[in-house]
UniProtKB/TrEMBL annotation:
Role noted for this protein: Catalyzes the sequential NAD-dependent oxidations of L-histidinol to L-histidinaldehyde and then to L-histidine.
Annotated metabolic or biological route of this protein: Amino-acid biosynthesis; L-histidine biosynthesis; L-histidine from 5-phospho-alpha-D-ribose 1-diphosphate: step 9/9
PROSITE patterns for the chain: HISOL_DEHYDROGENASE
Residue numbers binding NAD(+): Y123, Q185, N208
Cofactor binding note: Binds 1 zinc ion per subunit.
UniProt key word Cytoplasm: no
GO molecular function terms listed in the Swiss-Prot or TrEMBL record: histidinol dehydrogenase activity; NAD binding; zinc ion binding
Name this protein carries in UniProt: Histidinol dehydrogenase
Protein species of origin: Lentibacillus amyloliquefaciens
Length: 428
């Protein structure tokens, strides 16, 4: 990991240009979307064979496959997924919102009606790993919001079946409709519908570059949660943090993929040196060390800050997906953090705790968007309608102001809409 001062880090960041060119990805994605819109299920089956190497008889996961999945997973996994479900449910239950109304004088009623989105699609990736935790994190808030129909799309394995851990998580979360389709074609199917897959109103869930770009292109025809970038962790550590803990937590994100961004900000040069050594030692013991080494080489940084105040300022400018405060008195310093997707306090609150079982959502803003975005929550699965009721006398009392404002904007039909009612009231 490269050791930098805060000034060197931001100079490096400023001088870096985004080398990611999505033009070729977008060409492929737009072709896939058009194909699915035109050919429906036929396109999904053909593209699944092309990209996943699997010739499917049907897209829908059968009851028998759910049963086989349940039989194939261990009791230990079932206990773990149920514990995670309980914690995630308990946390997100605090986010539920209710419609509200305020009754004013003269019979005026104003309010806000909260309504769940009717149908939601959840994308669960396949490929390098299975993600049953993402099933819970995306489905449970939707269920708590009151979404009536939730469907999952996920790529099939080479045997034409869906990962059993994903299916067990779907069953535990109460989802019955799971479809064997991944990639941009799955996003297109959710956005526009096919003979088998019904169109949804919102798409959530992580995915690779093709999935992310597909979500970008269908946005507007359907809502999406976010366009997520590479996974990030930023650790602020002083001399109280155990270096081997810090190293392990950095590596927990580096193993996601080669573009993951592990960053340490520390006020201790001794800590920086010890973490570098621990990272090198621990990396050699890990299964995904090839991915980790590339991630560390590409994006791994250790930033030396003169003071904790400088460290907090640096972290806020980065606005990381995950932020760990491994310092003295983390609670007392929480107010100094303004930009982070999730904040982990102390030496025994590592990021993987949030990924799996603590309760808060692990779908978080990335690439600096934590400066203006929030974690996925129950609030993402509802829509809100304003409610306005004025009786005629109340409208009459405010009509002159409305007419004045409408005329000032040159909108005479707006003015007439009010005036015609005022005239009727005056004639009564």
């Amino acid at each position: 990991m490269k050791l930098l001062t805060t000034e060197q880090f931001f100079t490096e960041k400023q001088n870096q240009t985004d080398q990611t060119d999505y033009r070729n990805v977008d060409v492929s994605v737009l072709e896939i979307i058009a194909d699915v819109q035109k050919s429906g299920d036929d396109a999904l089956l053909r593209l699944t064979e092309k990209f996943d190497g699997v010739l499917l008889d049907q897209l829908t996961v059968s009851e028998e496959e759910f049963w086989e999945a349940e039989k194939s997973v261990s009791q230990e996994f079932k206990r773990a997924i149920r514990t995670a479900k309980e914690n995630i449910t308990a946390f997100h239950a605090n986010q539920t919102e209710q419609s509200w109304f305020m009754n004013q004088t003269d019979g005026i009623t104003l309010g806000q009606k909260v309504t769940a989105i009717e149908r939601v699609g959840v994308y669960i990736p396949g490929g390098k790993a299975s993600y049953p935790s993402s099933v819970l994190m995306n489905v449970i808030p939707a269920k708590l919001a009151g979404v009536e129909e939730i469907i999952i799309t996920t790529p099939p394995n080479s045997d034409g079946k869906v990962n059993p851990y994903v299916l067990l998580a779907a069953k535990e979360a109460g989802v019955k409709a799971v479809y064997k389709v991944g990639g941009a074609q799955a996003i297109a199917a959710l956005a526009y519908g096919t003979e088998t897959i019904q169109k949804v109103f919102k798409i959530v869930g992580p995915g690779n570059a093709y999935v992310a770009r597909a979500k970008k292109w269908v946005f507007g025809d359907v809502a999406i949660d976010m366009i997520a970038g590479p996974s990030e962790i930023c650790i602020v550590a002083d001399d109280t943090a155990p270096p081997r803990f810090v190293a392990a937590d950095l590596l927990s994100q580096a193993e996601h993929d080669e573009d993951a961004r592990p960053i340490l900000i520390t006020t201790s040069e001794k800590m920086a040196e010890a973490v570098q050594e621990a990272v090198a030692q621990q990396t050699e013991q890990l299964e995904r060390k090839a991915i980790i080494k590339e991630s560390l080489a590409n994006n791994g940084r250790i930033i030396f800050a003169e003071t904790l105040s400088e460290a907090f300022d640096t972290a806020n400018k980065i606005a990381p997906e995950h932020l760990q405060l491994m310092i003295r008195e983390p609670f007392e310093n929480l107010a100094n953090i303004t930009n982070a997707g999730a904040i982990f306090l102390g030496h025994y609150s590592p990021e993987p705790l949030g990924d799996y079982a603590a309760g808060p959502n692990h779908t978080l803003p990335t690439s600096g968007t934590a400066a203006f975005s929030s974690p996925l929550g129950v609030y993402d699965f509802v829509k809100k309608s304003s409610v306005i009721h004025y009786p005629n006398q109340a409208l009459d009392r405010i009509s002159r102001d409305i007419i004045t404002l409408a005329n000032a904007e040159g909108l005479s039909a707006h003015s007439q809409s009010i005036q015609i009612r005022k005239d009727e009231q005056d004639d009564a």
